[in-house]
């Protein structure tokens, strides 16, 4: 059991129902100095309620409380200070980590409930942006966090593979493109046609009519239009999959916008029969005045459907297919207003899971101060960023550890891990400027720093040889060990916190704290010394290794055993 629960239970017993367990645990504080114990309860917060002096309340609690499992419980002024029984606590914590292994911290809050996660979702015929990278890695980590909390995540790539832009693309391709060019360099070529289309239609507005006509054909199932669309989609997907492979991210479904084409009419019919559609300048909209929002457009004046129409169909499909416990969208904060509209329309329609829609937004990312864009001049491609990072990691490893046997493999793990970690360590709403060199440093708040701590722990265990490692109640006398134990014991709480806040950064920060505590311990103590405490120290190192690897896994970062 973790200590805050233990303290809460003991206090609840002593307080005779004056406060609920939740209220007690919310009040617990971590004292500033060791002399004030490991956790403290501010008794003065009860003074009004009990009509007593704070000191008196603290003293009464101490007199009544069950002290088993604590080294001591002391009243200090208006506080009750709890000193944990370190040897018991260490043994219990290590026992839990070593027996549960990577499952340590697993809970069943989600009760197996389905959570579709709409993530990554790049647009066909455009390069994947850093924003899509953020959605991919945040979504992937949230899926792991959900699973760790007992939910069943379903990772869905809602590809932008439908819309009027495909009419423009077909026109551009037919006028200026060739099969050969597209095969050679699909995304760049397709972007080129699209950009050229927008340049030329300024003087040749008839191009727009042609594009509209091609999209109309596409929606009507015309063979030529469909084949071109399918081909553009396939070529783009190949490139995206290259990025997903590098990141080690997989999806359960690729239900892009086009997947919902045959499900849009039902949406329109439902909205009509619920009397929710209104005409506005020829278009069909859902009025959202009572939500204090602009109307949501469902059909354009020419009858074409929109991004919104497809998202309503998507939510309806997920509602029926998964009966979701949550319906999650990991999409940049610039679409926050849009998702509020989607949710409001679903509520108006009375879709059961409407109130389960969670938009998990995130801030902007720039690379070395440069923004990524598809329309203008220079663009930084995600694929290139990943390759650069791996190349830099390779150079570092060659210098630091020239004898490492699987250098290539480790360079990939470190180079990609640096990018993923460099993103996820930030509160997701923060805007970040990404500096590759900084994120690749083995020191500071980086992925390689945590990976290196893990490799160091593994190296110690290799040196220790073939010994059986188990928790035992030998107290480890090094004071630095205690900081590690406290971190390990805190992990189950962090797992829940990360879910409550939808924040992978909680896990990243945990891994940094644990790596730091471990490095301090490593610097101060002779772990492999041949004395009575050696087995306990090895149990500690093994536990650190397990939890560093597990926290990195939750983030989607690999942990090489050697680097
Ligand atoms: N393709 C969209 C974009 O790049 C993101 C899609 C997000 N998901 C959704 N269901 N709308 O902006």
UniProtKB/TrEMBL annotation:
Superkingdom of this protein's organism: Bacteria
Alphabetized UniProt keyword annotations: Aminoacyl-tRNA synthetase, ATP-binding, Cytoplasm, Ligase, Nucleotide-binding, Protein biosynthesis
Residue ranges annotated as motif 'HIGH' region: 122-132
GO terms under cellular component: cytoplasm
GO biological process: arginyl-tRNA aminoacylation
A Pfam family of this chain: tRNA-synt_1d
Catalysed reaction, written as an equation: tRNA(Arg) + L-arginine + ATP = L-arginyl-tRNA(Arg) + AMP + diphosphate
Enzyme class: ligase
Record-level Gene Ontology MF annotations: arginine-tRNA ligase activity; ATP binding
The enzyme's E.C. designation: 6.1.1.19
Entry-linked InterPro entries: Arg-tRNA-ligase, Arg-tRNA-synth_N, Arg-tRNA-synth_N_sf, ArgRS_core, DALR_anticod-bd, Rossmann-like_a/b/a_fold, tRNAsynth_Ia_anticodon-bd
Subcellular location(s) of the protein: Cytoplasm
Stretches assigned to the Arginyl tRNA synthetase N-terminal domain: 1-84
Stretches assigned to the DALR anticodon binding domain: 450-563
Family: Belongs to the class-I aminoacyl-tRNA synthetase family.
Subunit relationships: Monomer.
NCBIfam families, alphabetized: argS
Name of this protein: Arginine--tRNA ligase
Protein's organism: Levilactobacillus bambusae
